Amino acid sequence: MQINIIIFGQLCDLLGENLMLNDIADTNSLTEMLNKKFPQLADAKYVMAVNKKVVTENISLTNNSTVALLPPFSGG
Predict the structure, then answer these.
(1) Which of 31, 39, 58, 67 has its CA at 20 to 30 Å from residue 17's CA atom?
(2) Hey, how many other C-beta atoms are within 10 angstroms of the C-beta on 17?
(3) Helices (H), ranges, the chain
């Protein structure tokens, strides 16, 4: 199972370019893996979207899911 991770804004400075990951079952597992691989991400504020829908709770990921990591929004 392959997951595409798209990274936006200042999160690119922490993670670099977009990522392709394998065998990630859900968003909690993804967050845990990213925090281990990129410890500086644990302190960063961001929103996660799965297949263009912002998620705030753990959801299952399927083959070819696209996960976007979005920096905090601001403006007016």
Answers:
(1) 58
(2) 8
(3) 11-15, 27-37
